[in-house]
Amino acid sequence: MKMDGKTVLITGSTDGVGRYVAARLAASGAKVLIHGRDSARAETLIEEIKRAGGVEPIFYQADLSSLAEVRRLAQAVLADHTRLDVFVSNAGIGSQNEGPARQTSRDGHELRFAVNYLSGFLLAHLLLPLLQASAPSRIVNVASLGQHPIDFDDVMITRGYSGGRAYAQSKLAQIMFTIDLARELAGSGVTVNSLHPATYMNTTMVRAGGVTPISTVEQGGEAILHLVSGDDVADKSGLFFNGMNEAQPHPQACDEAARQRLRALSFELTDLAAG
C-alpha cells in the first residue's frame, strides 16, 4: 500500500518505536497523527520530520490511563479528519514503568491493563466508523511475545501482583481482541493484526525495566511498517506476527470462550454498547 496521502494515527508515537514509525511514514508522504503525553517531545519530533522534508504531523495530547481522555482523543480525530487509513495501537507501559508496585488508572483499573489494552480497545471501537468508511484500511496492535493467561476471577491482579505478569496479561488481551475484531470486520475491508515487533528494543520502556537491549528500534519499526503497508498482508486479518513472520500466540488467545469473556468485560469496563 502506498502511504502517500494516507492518514495514519499512531498512539505512543513521541518516543521509541512509535516515533520511528511516525517519522518513516511522514517521510513517505503520509499524514501522520502523532499522540503522546509530552507536548515538548511532540514538538521535537515535528521539527525533525519537517527538517527531513516529511509531511508535517499533527499532534494529539492524551493520557490513555483515563478512558475519558481516550474518548476525547477519538472525538478530536473524528472531528478533524474525513478519513483514517491506518490505526496503530502502540502506546503502552512496561513491567517497571511508573514503578514495580501495583497501580490503578484514573478509572480504578489495573494500570497496565488499562493503558496497554483497554485504551486501544475503546479507541478502535470509537474510530471504526471512520476506518470502515476509508476501507481498505488497517488496524495494527503492537503486542508482545510476553503473554500471560488472564485469570478471570482476578483480572485486575489484586492478589500476587507483579509488573511482568500485568504487562504480559495486557499483551495477551490485545491479541485476543485482535482475533475477535478481525472476525467481526470480515468482509468490511478493514484488517486487524497484532505483532511482537522485536525483543527488548532499545527503548525507554525496556531500559526502565533494567534490561539490556538486544534489538534496535529500527528492527521493531520495520516489522510494524510491514503490517501497516505490506502488500503481502493486505488480505490477512486476525493474525499474530513475531517480527515479520506469522506466529502462534498463547493458547488462551485461541480459546473462544475466554475471548467472549474478555469481550464482555471490556465492553462493560469501557461503557460501550456491545455489538
Task: Give short descriptive properties of this protein.
eight-stranded mixed sheet; alpha/beta; 275 residues; 8 strands; globular; Rossmann fold
Task: Describe what this molecule looks like in 3D.
This protein has 275 residues and is of the alpha/beta class. It has one domain: 3-Layer(aba) Sandwich (Rossmann fold). It is 43% helix and 13% strand. It has 8 helices and 8 strands. It has helices at 16-27, 39-51, 67-80, 111-133, 163-184, 204-208, 217-229, 256-270; strands at residues 7-10, 31-36, 58-61, 86-89, 137-142, 190-196, 240-242, 245-247. The protein has an 8-stranded mixed sheet with strand order 3-2-1-4-5-6-7-8, with helices on both faces. β5 (137-142), α5 (163-184) and β6 form a beta-alpha-beta unit. α4 packs parallel to α5 and α5 packs across α8 (256-270). It is globular, with a radius of gyration of 17 Å. The mean pLDDT is 95.
Q: How is this fold's topology laid out?
A:
Elements lengths: L6 E4 L5 H12 L3 E6 L2 H13 L6 E4 L5 H14 L5 E4 L21 H23 L3 E6 L20 H22 L5 E7 L7 H5 L8 H13 L10 E3 L2 E3 L8 H15 L5
Parallel strand pairs: 1-2, 1-4, 2-3, 4-5, 5-6, 6-7
Antiparallel strand pairs: 7-8
Helix pairs in contact: 1-7, 3-4, 4-5, 5-8
Report the CATH topology name: Rossmann fold
How many β strands by DSSP? 8
SSE order, as H and E?
EHEHEHEHEHEHHEEH
Uncertain stretches: none
Question: What is the topology, as strand order, of the major beta sheet?
Answer: 3-2-1-4-5-6-7-8
> Distance N terminus to C terminus?
30 Å
- Report the sheet with the most strands, covering strand number, pairing sense and barrel closure: 8 strands, mixed
Summarize model confidence as the mean pLDDT: 95
Q: Tell me the strand percentage band.
A: 5-15%
Rg (CA only): 17 Å
